[in-house]
Description:
Layout (H helix, E strand, L loop, with lengths): L3 H14 L7 E6 L7 E7 L5 H17 L7 E5 L5
Antiparallel strand pairs: 1-2, 1-3
Amino acid sequence: MRLVLPYAILLGAIAACSPPDGSMYTLYRRSVLDARQRLHVATFDAAESEQYNQENCSVVLEQMQRRPGVTVQYWCEKGRFRK
């Protein structure tokens, strides 16, 4: 029991620092083998504003699309990763 309390306090502190789902953005891409399949690339969930996470997602998206030979589609969606 004495070990459980420090872990509970730590988990509570981590949860308090986590941004709400509404401020997160997730970067996805299409599969090379199946264009209907969406694949998770990254989640932008900094404890900053929604705009901050959206802009970071957009910057990475643009960099990924500019790579030579890239033929798959990348896009950002608001929220956590969803299949």
